[in-house]
Structures are given as structure tokens and as C-alpha cells.
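Dear support,

I submitted the protein below through the web form. The confirmation email said the job was done, but the results page showed an empty box. After a refresh the structure appeared. I'm attaching both so you can tell me whether what I see now is the final result or a partial one.
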Amino acid sequence: MPEETKSFMKGAFILAAAALFIKVLSAVYRVPFQNIVGDTGFYIYQQVYPFYGIAYVLASTGFPVVISRVVAAKDHQNEKSVKSKLQAAFIVLLFVGLGLFSFFFFGGDFIARRMGDPFLGPVIRVIAFPFLLLPFLSVWRGVFQGNGNMLPTALSQVTEQVIRIGAILLLSFLLVKKGHSLYEVGRGAWAGAVAGSVAGTVLLAVFAGRNKKIYMGASSLSFHDLVAAGKWVLVHGTAICFSGLLLILFQLVDSLTVFSLLVHSGLESGDAKVLKGIFDRGQPLIQLGTTVAGSISLALVPAMTAAWSQGNRELLQHKTDSAVKLSAVAGAGAAIGLMNIIVPTNTMLFKNQDGSLELAFLAASIFLASMVITFSGIFQGMGAALIPAKYLFVGIACKYALNMGLVSQYGTLGAAVATNVGIGFIFFLLLKELKKRISVHAVLLRALPRLLIACTAMTAVLQAWLFLFHFAGLEGRFWSAVSALAGVAIGGLAYMAVLVYCNLFDREELKHVPLYMKIWGKAERRRRK
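What the results page shows now:
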């Protein structure tokens, strides 16, 4: 393997490992946080979270990737041209960051009233500050990535999230202990998030100060060049963020509509906050459930890009089939498994089983979201990142319309149904669009019947397992934890055993299944004896 390719693969692995660690950490910390602040406190935090999520995804995924492409092409253009484009990108992102900061800081009260809870205004103003760091995080990360140095980006992202989460948990615990209001706790928690963003920026600044390949400096720019660079960075940067923004934008629709609709339907404000907080328990579960699909997408894009640029249709088809199959298996298993054990899981993580029906419906979106994230990786690898972005907004419009019609009548259950329908709409649109470029129907038609059989078998096993606990009268948080955690192992084994028996995977794919080759090797040796 050429040295340049090895370096690229190493860099891609570093970024993928950092992204996976951050995704798991970002889902897990919400459990102790909810335990500290309760459902109402969790509602306050989650109402504002989508705004931070947008800022983080733009500064870690979208804009740096676009900027890295400019830097990576420096061998085909002079250094002055690269500096001009970077300067233009920085200026554009500076205006974007200032604009978004102003919108959230000065419009915090307006957004809070739009959400139906004016007390959220001060909390929203706190979350405006990370947008000021957008140009620095985006350009520095993009330059490092374009030069093939992924370590500063990975370390800054991990540092940002570790400090953010540590500060959120510590400040929340101290503020609750001292008797502050939950809105003050929420403001303190988001101040911790700002501290994380600052820490990530400072670390990048240190790396930038030591690196001579940072192409920044003042130079004259024409208005035309500035507009052209701005259009390129904004359009393509936002499009590349698709998989990261998918769940965040659906959460944003819920933040803008669910609480106000619950109140308008006749619920008391306090009760509506608790219901929204309970509904928000589903977000870390969905985030964990789609981790595998996100990892597949991260690994898929470079391989797909290489195959597409080489015109290697056979390799392109092979990569697509494997990614779609693995994503479908992981997404369906996580969705159906969680739906089966949602009651003990809910009790184990969040102290009680409130909202389990709504969370079970919400869990179904794991499968659809996993497929959509994988499809988006395929499109991005083929240089068509704008297609998933376009359909994302169609799905968001569908989600919003359904929320307006269903939440008032069915509460948070209606919001869960709207999420499934909205993501499902994106799934079918992307599937139809993908069919024009590459075949995915064959692998889906082969996989789906086998997945149905495996999911049915897993459901039977898990329901029998849960019945034993019910029959023995084993209740409470401890026994819920035992039944949920053991259920993951038992259900997962049953699920994979049926899929292997149904020959869904070929021998090459089975080599990557943990323990399979070891067990198969022993069985094969016994058979030969």
C-alpha cells in the first residue's frame, strides 16, 4: 500500500474513532444528567440542545470537510490562491457565526415564546456563544485535515466534549444541591458546554501556532471571490452535515412544537414539561442505536469516493451491498430489541417506566434513521451530498405538519409517530433516488425477509425472558437492570444465530462477526475428527 494511502487511512481511522467515542459519550451522559435534574430539568436542557447540536455539527463535520478539500488541492494551484480561499471562507463563516450568535442571543426571548416557555430565554442566550467560535474551529480543523493531519481535529473534538460533559454534570449537581431553580441549572449546564467549546478552540490555536502549514494571512479579496467562496462553503458544508443533522433537526421540530401544543391541548404547564422531558428520554437511546450506522457511514465515504472516482462499478456495488446489509442488520436489531425491553431499560436508566409506550414507538425510528444515514454516506461518496440534504428538508416539513396534527390529539405518542413517518419519508425518497445510480433493491429484498424472521425469533426469546421476571415477581430498578442488560445479550445472540442460520452473511462477512470464526473453527475441527 502506498505511503500516502496508509497516511490517509490512518487519518480516517483517527477521525472515525474520535467520532464514535464522542457519539457514545454524548448519549451516555444524559442518563446521569436526567437522574440529577429530573424530567422537568431534562426538558429544559433538551429544548435548547438542538441549537448547540447544529453549531457542533457545522464546526466539526460540514465546514471543515469543505475547507479541507481546498487545502488538499493546493498542489494544483498556487499558495496565494489557497490563502485567498481560506481567507474568504473565514470571513464568510465569521459573518455566519456573528449572525447566528445575534439571532440566538438577541432573539432568545422570541424563540422561547415561540416554544411556549418564556423562561427559556436566558438559557437560549447562553447557547449563542459557541457560534462565535465557528470560523476558528472550522478553518483550523479544515486546514489540518487538508494537510492530512487528523490528530488536532480529533483531540479538539474529544477535549471539547469531555470538558463539556464533565462541566454539565458537575455544575448541575452543585446547582441542584444548592437549591437553584431548574432554569438556573439549565443555564449553568449550558455554560459548561460553552467552556468545552472554548477549550477545543484553545487547543486548536496551540496546534495552529506550532504549525507552519496554516495558510492564513491578509490579502486583497474581490467581492465576487468572497461571494463565490461563501456559496461553496455554506451550500456544500451544510449538505455534508446531513447525517449529523438528521436527528438534531427532528429534535428541533419537537422543541418548537411539542410543549406548546401540549399546553394548548389543555395540559397544565408543569405537566407538559414533565411529559416532554419523559419523551426526550428517547433521544440518547436513538443516538446509541444509530451508532453502528454512523460508524459505517464514516468508514464508507472514503472507500465509496475512491471507487466512484476510479469508475470501479464492481467495487462500488460491493461496498454498497455490504454497507446496506450491515446497517439494516444493526438498525433492525437495535430497534426491535429496544422495543421489546423498553420497560426495564426505561426503569434502569431513568428510575421509572413512564412513557414506555411512546419510547417504544420512537425506538422504531432507529432502523429508518440507520438506513438514511447509510444512504447519505453512499451519496456523499458518489459526490452527490446535496441530494440527501434536499430530502432532509422534505422530511422535516412532513414531521412538522404531522406534529401540528397529532400532538394535540395523541400527545407525545403523536410526536413519536410523526418522527417515524418523517424519517421513513426520507428513506423512501433516498431509496428511489439511489436506484437511479446503483442497485440496492437486490440486497434489501434478500435481507428483509431474513431480518423479519430473526426479529420475530428475538421478540419471542425476549418476551419469554421478561415473562420469567414478571412471573417471579422481580421488580424494581435493580431487577430491571438485570433483565435489560441480560436481555441485550440473550436477544442479540438469538438474533445473530437466526441470521447466520438463514445465510444472510457470506463467509467473508462472517469473519468480522465477533467470536464466530473461533466457534466455527472449533466446530469444523470436531467435524473433521
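Response: this is the final, complete result; the empty box was a page-load delay. Residues 1-240 form one domain.
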